[in-house]
Predict the structure.
Amino acid sequence: MKAVLKTEWEPGIIEIKDVDKPKIGADEVLIEVMATGICGSDVEIYEASMPLPVSLPRIMGHEFSGVVVEVGEAVLGVRVDDRVVAESGIVCRRCRFCKMGRHNLCLQRKILGYLWDGTFAEYVKVPGINVHKVPDNVPLDEAALAEPTAVTVHAVVERAHIMAGDVVAILGPGPIGLLTLQCAKSAGARRIIVTGLSADRSRLELARKLGADETINVEEEDAVKKTKELTDAFGADVVFEATGAPPAVKQAIDLTRKGGKIVLMGLHTKPVEKFDATHIIVNEKNILSSFAHASQTWDRALSLISDGKIKPRPLITHVLPLEQIEQGFHLVKKKEAIKVVIKPP
Ligand SMILES: [Zn+2]
Ligand SMILES: [Zn+2]
């Protein structure tokens, strides 16, 4: 089968080549990949700047949907021809964190495309327990965005516990920011502000179409001042930091009202400097983090897509064949694309 492999930890080095189709064990399923999205983190792996461990050679990719073609004899509840997505974290289901339902913190978690062969390929194998059926009314190219949707459901629902009437600010109008926006809206946020850079202009426009009440270009306007104006000098109840840019962390803290919540989602390649602990303490601001998703996050994410509360379709700006994946990486890197979906042969 054709697959995209990271072969050397050097920027821009990948190989697209024929490899053996994965052989499944008794508790695994083989899925034919129908659509697989390029995540910002895939570009970081391509560029060899990803801070999380990746073992090489490795088939890249973790956001996908597909059709089951083979089912191991010990797998329950999954059949050949099922339209599915799969959790991108392969976890042990036995450690204390897994038993707490916090699968994203599993001591042995292996992420697809990092420590387990991923989805930029014709086929991928995963444990049967990782599989979730795609609702009948959801097309598979939209279902390929179930993974980033689950990331935002985890942040909005399971970490921030957004409540009806909350004023929310989202820093970064990338795919995660735009899905966070829709999720926060469906959770009952009253007013949503999305911030970005000049290069994000078209993304900020899309944010408005998807329900943002205000958008702020932080290169043209002072986001803290503007947010204070919009909230009677109060600040936002909850701020999601979805950029991974170190200065945005301070901005997220400054945008948050006293006693409010800051949710850090964007992964950083460098430590954040100028972190004012006293300001956080005397204002009782709550710094939370959100990483990936747990098993239980997925059904909620798929239901929200099925109900039309979260719409992945407007985020898909490009669909490319597997052979043109490098072009996809460049489109994402230059912010010419929002979400690139790859169709393997
Ligand atoms: Zn991703
Ligand atoms: Zn575990």
Observations:
- Residues 39, 41, 62-63, 147-148 surround zinc ion (ligand 1) (CB under 6 Å).
- The chain is about 30% helix and 25% strand.
- The longest helix spans residues 146-159.
